[in-house]
Design a protein that fits this description.
The chain is an alpha/beta fold and about 450 residues long. The chain contains 14 helices and 15 strands. Helix 10 (about 355-365) packs antiparallel against helix 11 (about 370-380). The structure holds zinc ion (2 copies).
Length: about 450
């Protein structure tokens, strides 16, 4: 299996630390609002990585975090640690406690997670449940001399970590104060330095704050992922998945603080999912096109059509969402399901070896889903038996996750069954001409009746 590694910038042969269990951490949602279809593109990418690993016989131990404190409004804008805590803003806006906000949006997220048939991690880890571990990690960094204190918190000194820009490609010396997009914090030693622990403001009681060796406050967003990942999956893990927006700041920060604390490599394979565009442009709340799953459902779309839509682009290439494209995808998904409903099951039918080979080549080549989907249509169009097609589709669906099994069920129409029963009665009574006449009617409907001495069986005509 080959996987593109953002750190080496190469497609590499995948080799897990432990040959039997692959450890995966996925940067999860910040639960201050609904997760939109751009966020879910990343979560589906993570799901596909896990499904392909399992298809290849690996066991997967996976963790997804739920950020319920400390993710600031400035954190994604090029200068970390500016702005306010998103959970606190949402609490003030909605007139609820930060805990209520987090619980509400977490629950909503988990429902959408199921609707997209995503692989459940072993645990969804809430940041607020790991505060002690974060404090311990910051103390470790402090003891090793990687931190400094300024008026609003404890910061990580990125100039002390020589490989800081390895993932992002950003060199520290290229980042003058003018390079930062937001007003830089003048107390910071380097523009790339980031907060490990933020001190609560003296004039305001926060919804969520904790005592610490440095004073009352809350953890920085980046330290959360490092602490949870290392506690749950060990100091070095196999795969870390996140959106490409994390490649510049969040993930370099995670690497810096983790590797400085342990002296070990933090993550072997970094997997970044590309953005989703909407109508050819940027997606965003301010643009009004940050659609959520229930927006799709309100327009009559099934969430699985969105899942199928994502698979029509490679996870590392941009994908453009339009309602028309989603409609086309839903149509083709329904066509697929309708076809499957006409297929007759045959558990003994052999798998389509050549299609299996092509499918496996595709998924094992850095999760190439567009090719895997094309192989599926090729299989459907082939003249292989329906039993072979079904059995092969069920294998493919271990990765597709489209719930193909729900659509299998070869049904004999009631009318045909009634005809066959009547014919059986005539036959028993020796009324051959009428039995023959009904047999022809059944054949006209596309079915064949096989008689045995004690019973009759209906099957579809070839
Ligand atoms: Zn991450
Ligand atoms: Zn993270």
């Amino acid at each position: 299996m080959k996987l593109y590694n953002s750190l080496s910038k190469e497609t590499e042969d995948f080799k897990p630390i432990n040959p039997d269990i692959v450890t995966i951490y996925t940067c999860g949602p910040t639960v201050y609002m609904y997760q939109h279809i751009g966020n879910f593109r990343t979560f589906v990418a993570s799901d596909l990585v896990q499904r392909v690993l399992k298809y290849n016989g690996y066991k997967v131990k996976s963790i997804m975090n739920i950020t319920d404190v400390g993710h600031l409004t400035g954190d994604n804008l090029g200068d970390a640690d500016t702005g306010s805590d998103r959970l606190e803003i949402a609490a003030d806006r909605e007139g609820k406690s930060a805990r209520d906000i987090a619980d509400f949006y977490t629950e909503y997220f988990l429902k959408d997670f199921d609707k997209l048939n995503l692989t459940k991690p072993e645990r969804f880890t809430k940041a607020t449940a790991y505060i002690k571990d974060m404090v311990a990690l910051i103390q470790k960094l402090e003891q090793k001399g990687f931190t400094y204190r300024i008026s609003d918190g404890i910061y990580f000194d990125t100039s002390k970590f020589a490989q800081y820009g390895k993932l992002s490609g950003v060199k520290l010396e290229d980042l003058g104060g003018a390079g930062a997009r937001l007003e830089p914090n003048p107390e910071k030693r380097n523009p790339t330095d980031f907060a490990l622990w933020k001190l609560s403001p003296s004039d305001k009681v926060r919804w969520q704050e904790w005592e610490s060796p440095w004073g009352k406050g809350f953890p920085g967003w980046h330290i959360e992922c490092s602490a949870m990942s290392m506690i749950e999956l060990g100091e070095t893990l196999d795969v870390h998945v996140g959106g490409e927006d994390h490649k510049m700041i969040h993930h370099p920060n995670e690497i810096a603080q983790s590797e400085c604390a342990t002296g070990k490599k933090f993550v072997n394979y970094w997997v970044h999912g590309a953005f989703l565009k909407v109508d050819g442009g940027r997606m965003g709340k301010s643009v009004g096109n940050a659609y959520i799953i229930s927006d799709l459902e309100a327009k009559g779309f099934e969430p699985l059509a969105l899942r199928f839509f994502y698979m029509h682009a490679h996870y590392r290439t941009k994908l453009n969402f339009t309602w028309e494209a989603l409609q086309n995808t839903q149509n083709s998904l329904r066509r697929l399901f309708a076809l499957i409903e006409t297929y007759k099951e045959d558990p003994d039918a052999p798998l389509a070896i050549e299609h299996m080979r092509q499918f496996e080549d595709a998924i094992n080549n850095d999760i190439n889903m567009p090719t895997a989907v094309a192989v599926m249509w090729d299989l459907i169009k082939s003249d292989l038996s329906e039993g072979t097609k079904l059995n092969t589709l069920l294998k493919f669906d271990e990765v597709f996750g489209l719930k193909i099994a729900d659509h299998i069920g070869y049904e004999i129409p009631k009318s045909v069954e009634n005809l066959a029963r009547t014919r059986w009665e005539y036959k028993k009574q020796g009324i051959w001409d009428k039995a023959d006449m009904i047999r022809r009617q059944i054949e006209k409907a596309g079915f064949v009746v096989d008689d045995s001495s004690s019973d009759f069986k209906i099957r579809r005509a070839k």
